[in-house]
Amino acid sequence: MIGRLRGILIAKSPPWLLIEVGGGVGYELEAPMSTIYDLPELGREVTLFTHYAQKEDSVSLYGFLREGERRLFRDVQKVTGIGAKIALAILSGVSVDEFARLVQAGDVTALTRIPGIGKKTAERMVVELRDRAAALTGGDVVTPMSAPADPQSEAVIALQQLGYKPAEAQRMARDAAAAGDDAAQIIRKALRSALR
């Protein structure tokens, strides 16, 4: 299927849209609120970037006004435990730029304020998407507005991703950290200590 859809906006009932493409043919799409807010009036022409998803028992079509939204929708679903529903919730809760800023800053607390995102999912997003956060905004570097997480906090998140309980991960990172250590050094020392 083509990655764009152009037609007349016939109906919108969030999160659903109905676009007539001509000849009596219409497509029903799901869209995030970020797209729905910026749509033209009913009866006007609209062009949407689309994402087609086929599962064993269903076919879904998603629509986005901006390519960055579609890219974020696709990228965030690569994180374990995140599907289309949560990806739409993310786009409905924050802008692409704000999401990239939160991921780069490692702001797990702010990410958990997005409906459907728990602490573990937020931590996975930070770990798995941090390196790609600039690409989410089209390659622009996003300057964090809040201070980035310190190496010890990053190590705690990584240890939790490895299966350690939060209190245990904090203790391990605290005991292993030394002045000037980066997150990787703290993690290595914490894991060596755990094996003794």
Question: What value does the Rg take, in angstroms?
Answer: 20 Å
CATH topology of the largest domain: DNA polymerase, domain 1
CATH homologous superfamily identity of the largest domain: 5' to 3' exonuclease, C-terminal subdomain
Q: Name the CATH architecture of the largest domain.
A: Orthogonal Bundle
**Main sheet, how many strands, which sense, barrel?**
5 strands, antiparallel
Number of helices: 10
Question: How many strands in all?
Answer: 5
Please report the first level of CATH classification, the CATH class of the largest domain.
Mainly Alpha
Q: Label the structural class.
A: alpha+beta
List low-confidence stretches.
Answer: 139-148
Main location: cytoplasm
Family: Belongs to the RuvA family.
Subcellular location: Cytoplasm
InterPro entries: DNA_helicase_Holl-junc_RuvA_I (IPR013849), Hlx-hairpin-Hlx_DNA-bd_motif (IPR003583), NA-bd_OB-fold (IPR012340), RuvA (IPR000085), RuvA_2-like (IPR010994), RuvA_C (IPR011114), RuvA_C_sf (IPR036267)
